[in-house]
Write a structure and sequence with these properties.
The complex is a heterodimer of chains A (about 400) and B (about 400). Chain A is α+β, with helices and mostly antiparallel strands and about 400 residues long. Chain A has helices spanning about 30, 85-115, 135-140, 175, 180-185, 215, 240-250, 280-285, 345-370, 380-385; strands at about 45, 50, 80, 115-120, 145-150, 160-165, 200-205, 205, 220-225, 230, 235, 295-300, 310-315, 325-330. In chain A, helix 2 packs antiparallel against helix 9. Chain B is mainly alpha-helical. Chain B contains 17 helices and four strands. Chain B has helices spanning about 10-20, 35-40, 55-60, 70-105, 120-130, 130-140, 145-150, 160, 170-190, 205-230, 235-255, 270-275, 275-305, 310-315, 335-345, 365-370, 380-385, and strands at about 25-30, 45-50, 60-65, 230-235. In chain B, helix 2 links the parallel strand 1 and strand 2 (about 45-50). The longest helix of chain B is centred in the first third of the chain and has 38 residues, at about 70-105. Classes of the chains: A alpha+beta (about 400), B mainly alpha (about 400). Chains A and B meet through strand 3, helix 2, helix 4, helix 5 and helix 7 of A and helix 1, strand 1, strand 3, helix 4 and helix 7 of B. Strand 3 of chain A pairs antiparallel with strand 4 (about 230-235) of chain B, so a sheet runs across the interface. Chain A: InterPro entries: CDC50/LEM3_fam. Chain A: It is a multi-pass membrane protein. Chain A: It holds the Pfam family CDC50. Chain A: It is found in: Membrane.
């Protein structure tokens, strides 16, 4: 006799039962006084000799296998029933703080070890007489040199990374981000695929390679470093991600028809170097997430001692003055974690410290206001009997 | 009030009167053809599949085999359903609110140009693959207390009547935590990327950061579901782990394949991310920082303002899990008297099953008397009469 199931599938029973025809209003169930109903049954031999086995619902006919009793459909899966007792709460907090505080300390130390020199030069590199009309100055053709000095505060180990930082430059603007054609960058034969690159798609009737606003606005300030009148070479190789060089920018795609329109937005590109080796372009085209961003310019492969004065001869070409953007030059070492960013260290320490504090606070609170686990006096019908 | 043999129009009128006049949620239960209109008039109609045929069953919202299954229908399954639906609905809004708000905070930093934070495919598949299955599993299997405890404490049903789990206050708290989590997810992911990201000084782009944020949000939202469960079966582990794994598999494939389309923003992004220590540190920090507030709230709520079902869980926390026993197979729980009356009820009764009335057997006083536990003892002559009757062959009824 196969067991029949009950919940989730109500079958017609064959059992003789009193047929009840009732209307019941369940307006508030408390008034009905619902009480224990033991739905149990028993192995009993009925008077007529019929044997009622331990499953109450005799399925006198066999059950179709598709609705057969299974732990899944009957919701009888073994389960663990976690209860958030004080012990668990405090242990969780202690565990988090034990893991986070050391990580935070390590991250903060790594960040503190990094030496960073920042120099904002967009105002200083405009000659005094042009300070009232900076846009006009920046748009005059020709070389616009500028000399800056930077003093090394602490010993900086090689390699020292040179970045340019732009403020208020929205590389994450929607129309800017979509203004590129990755398939054109990758393959020579897709040179005409410029549909998403408006307005920098076609110039003089020919497609622009690389097309789009992102490439058109390529940063074109240059920096030359010297120390004690000895030039410091800047290594401009390997400043972009290897995956970009290998797969995103083709080895046989050459710039063509670039910056040939009336409006020149940035740097020009040599048409004899393939795109996969134009690392400045590759770095620039990885659009930044925030309006204040840095991009890698190059590496200095010598140590710098504390107190040394670095002379920077830079060419102030890039027009950030039309939109009140700022330009900064950054020299930075790195650690295993990256550049100088205290955020991870501070965040880990804060969360770890907060968890430690909460663990203590919860311990105190649990000691001051204890509640026995499973205290029935907290049940709502025991707290205000008869009331709602 | 028990009605027997009343015409259906009358039954329907009385039900509608209570439903509209007294403005209560009504449930009506019946097994005959004349009960159909009454069943349809009430909010919840329950039909008993009985000897009069299936009309009541076909017209009803729920059908049961015997009248006394109504207890389980309400106290066990009705209550579980309420609990599950409340949690599923509020969780669904929470996870979408968190996801959308993370993008919303980004619009402040794009010059309000409308640049999306996440890639199109990520957005489309968020609700379809990466966060769908766990909440379904939760809605199927979650039990705040077991079935036997639900029956033992029928006062738990009050939680549904008082609408404890779907008040505006509850929705507001979920929304508050969604806002808090979206702020953590957004700013904690963006903040470490302002300077060089690995030891070779390279920088992350927009799509690197957004993929990192999406990974964090998938992990956070799925872990939040686990925090909300009262029963955790192996399907919970499979669905939560599977969803997170599905995300990683998807993004490995999506960013590993150079698709022939105009923009390949996500190309190779995940591999770039996974080559930096910053990614792993952020992935550890952000979900925990985001869920910290929820965890504190749950700890405080459970200890100082516990719900009834939580107290009952604690009272019975050491009892063995009897979910393996079928819901109605709870061994010999009948007392002697109950066993006896059961056995007597199994004796052949009247010649015909159709008595036309519900309450005419000897020994049966009235429905409400029996509910109040007042029974008239079986008459000896009746028991003897029935015991001596030849038992009818109990052939299976064809329907």
């Amino acid at each position: 006799m196969s067991k029949s199931y009950f919940m989730g599938h109500y079958r017609m029973g064959n059992c003789t039962e009193k047929r009840l025809q009732t209307i019941i209003w369940f307006s508030t169930f408390s008034t009905l006084g619902v009480h224990d109903v033991h739905a149990g049954f028993v192995s009993v031999t009925g008077g007529s000799g019929s044997f009622v086995d331990s499953s109450f619902f005799l399925a006198r006919r066999s059950i179709h296998p598709s609705v057969a009793h299974s732990r899944f459909t009957q919701q009888e899966l073994p389960a663990c029933k976690p209860i958030l007792t004080p012990r668990w709460v405090i242990s969780a907090f202690m565990l988090v703080s034990l893991v986070f505080i050391p990580i935070g300390v390590a991250s903060l130390f790594a960040s503190r070890d990094v030496v960073e020199i920042i120099d904002g030069y967009e105002t200083h590199c405009i000659p005094q007489e042009f300070r009232n009309d900076k846009v006009k100055y920046i748009q005059t053709p020709g070389v616009k040199p500028c000399i800056r000095t930077m003093t090394v505060p602490k010993h900086m180990k090689k390699p020292i990374y040179v970045y340019y930082q732009l403020d208020n430059f929205y590389q994450n603007h929607r129309r800017y981000v979509k203004s590129r054609s990755d398939v054109q960058l990758r393959e020579n034969k897709s040179e005409n695929d410029v549909s998403s690159c408006e307005p920098e798609d076609i110039a003089n009737g020919m497609p622009i390679v690389p097309c789009g606003l992102i490439a058109w606005s390529l940063f074109n300030d240059t920096y030359n470093f010297s120390r004690n009148n000895q030039p410091l070479t800047v290594n401009k190789k390997d400043i972009s991600w290897k995956s970009d060089r290998d797969h995103k920018f083709g080895k046989n795609v050459f710039p063509k028809n670039f910056q040939s329109g009336k409006l020149v937005g940035g740097a020009n590109l040599s048409s004899s170097i393939p795109l996969s080796e134009q690392e400045d372009l590759i770095v620039w085209m990885r659009t930044a997430a925030l309006p204040t961003f840095r991009k890698l310019y190059g590496k200095i492969e010598v140590d710098l001692q504390k107190g040394e004065v670095i002379n920077v001869t830079l060419e102030n070409n890039y027009n950030t003055y039309s939109f009140n953007g700022k330009k900064k030059l950054v020299l930075s070492t790195t650690s295993w974690l990256g550049g100088k960013n205290d955020f991870l260290g501070i965040a880990y320490l804060t969360v770890g410290g907060l968890c430690l504090f909460l663990a203590m606070a919860f311990t105190v609170v649990y000691l001051i206001k204890p509640r026995r686990l499973g205290d029935p006096s907290y049940l709502s019908w025991n707290r205000n009997p008869g009331g709602h | 009030m028990a009605e027997k043999g009343v015409e259906s129009k009358r039954l329907k009128e009385v039900t509608s009167l209570v439903r509209k006049g007294a403005r209560r949620i009504t449930l009506s239960i019946g097994d005959g053809a004349n009960d159909v209109s009454m069943i349809q008039a009430a909010h919840v109609g329950v039909g008993i599949s009985g000897q009069e045929g299936m009309q009541a069953v076909m017209a009803s919202d729920f059908s049961i085999a015997q009248f006394r299954f109504l207890t389980d229908l309400l106290l066990v399954h009705g209550r579980w359903s309420y609990h599950r639906i409340c949690k599923v609905v509020t969780y669904f809004f929470y996870k979408n609110l968190t996801f959308t708000l993370t993008q919303f905070w980004f619009t402040f930093q794009t010059g309000f140009s409308g640049q999306r934070f996440y890639d199109d495919w990520f957005q489309s598949l968020y609700n379809v693959i990466f966060t769908a299955l766990p909440v379904i599993v939760f809605g199927l299997f979650d039990k705040d207390v077991s079935a036997s405890l639900s029956r033992k404490y029928p006062e738990l049903y009050k939680e549904g009547i008082r609408n404890t789990f779907f008040k505006w206050r509850v929705v507001g708290i979920w929304a508050f935590f969604a806002i808090y989590q979206s702020l953590v997810l957004h700013y904690f992911v963006l903040a470490p990327t302002s300077s060089g990201i690995n030891s070779s000084g390279k920088m992350f782009g927009l799509w690197d950061v957004s993929t990192m944020a999406f990974t964090c949000i998938v992990v956070t939202v799925n872990l939040r579901l686990l925090m909300m469960c009262n029963t955790i079966t192996r399907w919970h582990y499979i669905s939560v782990g599977g969803s997170i794994l599905a995300w990683f598999i998807f993004v490995f494939i999506y960013s590993g394949v150079a698709l022939p389309k105009a923009q390949e923003n996500i190309y190779f992004v995940i591999y770039v991310l996974m080559s930096t220590v910053c990614f792993y540190l952020t992935l550890l920090l952000v979900p925990i920082a985001a869920l910290l507030c929820d965890f504190v709230y749950q700890g405080v709520q459970r200890w100082f303002f516990p719900y009834d079902y939580q107290i009952i869980q604690e009272i019975h926390r050491h009892e063995p899990d009897n979910s393996r026993v079928g819901l109605l197979e709870i061994g010999n729980e009948l007392s002697q008297d109950e066993a006896r009356s059961f056995a007597i009820a199994q004796l052949p009764g009247q010649k015909s099953k159709h008595t036309g009335f519900a309450f005419d057997s000897p020994g049966y006083e009235s429905f409400f008397a029996s509910q109040a536990g007042v029974f008239v003892p079986q008459r000896a002559w009746d028991v003897a009469r029935r015991a001596s009757m030849k038992s009818r062959a109990k052939t299976p009824r064809k329907n």
